[in-house]
Amino acid sequence: MQEIPRGDAHRPMLVVSPIMSAPESHTGYLRNLVLARNAIDRASELRTDSAKLDELWEKAKIVIVSAEKLSATDSELIYFSAKEITGDGERYFLGIDQETGESYFAFHVTSHNEEQLRTLRQVAADLTDREAALAVHAIALSNWHTSHPHCARCGAPTRSGIGGAVRICTVDESEHYPRTDPAVIVLIKDLDDRILLGHQPVWPENRYSTFAGFVEPGESFEQCVVREVAEESGVKVHTVKYLGSQPWPFPASIMVAFEAITSKPSDAKPDGQEITDVKWFSREEFQASVLNGTLILPPRISVARRMVEYWFGGEIESGESWRP
Fold it and tell me: What string of DSSP letters covers 29-44?
C-alpha cells in the first residue's frame, strides 16, 4: 500500500492500494466492483418447483426488504427464520450457497422496524461478497415488484410467481419479467492520458464524476457512448473500449462502463443542464485536488469510483468527505 503525502492535519488522506487482479475469464479491466460480486448460486432451475421452494423456505436465511431498505446492521445483513416471519408479504428466492448448502430468500413487506433497516448505499461496501450479492438481488427484485403491480396488457393486478422471478396477471395469466435499464458510463481521456470529469447541479460542491446516460431504443452501447459524451461534455470521442459492468438497482439499472478517447480536449464544454462544469485532470492535478479538498469523488460502491481509481492506479481510501 502506498501512502501519498497527506499535507496538514486538516486535509484528507489519500491512500492508494494496488488493484487486485481479476480471474482470467473476466473480459473487462475493472476490478472489485462492489455491486458486481457473486458468491451465490441463484439456482434458477428450482424456481418453478414450488414444493422445493416451500421446503427450502422452512430452513432458509431470510432478509427483510421494505421501501428500498433491507434488514441489516451497518456492516452485515440481519437474517430471520421462517418461524419469525409473520404478516403479509412476498417471498423471493435468492439462491443457495454451494459451500454450506444454505438457502436464502427475501421477504418483501410494506413496513418493518426502521432500526433494523439500512439502504444498499449505506452498507454495500462493507458487506462480504456473499451478502453483497444477496443484497443487490433482493433490492433489485423488490424495486421491480413494487413498480409493476399491474398487467401491462390489461391493467389487472399481478401476483408474484416462480420464486419472485416473474409477475403473473391475475386475469389473463400473462407473465411479466423483471426489467433492467442499461446505461453507459464513460471515462473520457485525451491523448495525454488526462481524464475529463463533470459536475451535476444536484451534487454537492466540488463533486465530480464520469459521464453517463441511458441507452436509447435501437442504439448500441458504443453509439450511446459517443452520443452521451457529445451531449453532456461537447467532445467527440473515438476508440471506445469496454471496461466492465455492475448492477445499479436505484431503481433498476445496469451500468456498462467504457473508456473513450478524444483528440480535441479543448472542445470540452458542459451542456449547462445535466452538467454545469467540466474539468480535465492529470494524475498530479487529480492528486492535488483530492488532497486540498477541491475534488470529491463518487461513493465507493459506484462504478464511476472504480473507473477513476483504475486510471489513477489503485484503490483510493479516504474519510467521509469522499461520500456524497
Answer: S----GGG---SB--G
C-alpha cell at 242: 469496454
pLDDT exceeds 50 at position 320? no
Q: Provide the 3-class DSSP secondary structure of residue 165.
A: coil
Q: DSSP secondary-structure letter at 207?
A: B
Rounded mean pLDDT of 251-270?
A: 98
Return the SS3 of 263. coil
The kind and range of the H/E element at 227 are: helix 221-233
**Listed residue (318, 316, 323, 299) closest to 17, CA to CA:** 316
Amino acid at 240: V
Tell me the pairing of strands 181-190 and 253-262: parallel
Res 118 pLDDT > 70 = yes
Question: Phi/psi of residue 275, each to 5°?
Answer: -125, 125
Integer angstrom CA distances of residue 57 from 54, 133, 235: 5, 19, 53
State yes or no: pLDDT of 136 exceeds 70. Answer: yes
Q: Which domains does the chain have, with CATH numbers?
A: 2-12+180-322 (3.90.79.10), 44-149 (3.90.79.20)
pLDDT interval class at 259 (50, 70, 90): very high
Amino acid 13 reads M
Strand partners, 80: 62
Of the candidates 91, 92, 89, 63, the one whose C-alpha atom is nearest the C-alpha of residue 78 is 63
Residues in the chain: 324
Amino acid at 160: S
Residue 90, SS3? strand
The string of pLDDT tens digits covering residues 146-197 is: 999 999 999 999 999 999 999 999 999 999 999 999 999 999 999 999 999 9
**Over residues 53-65, mean pLDDT:** 98
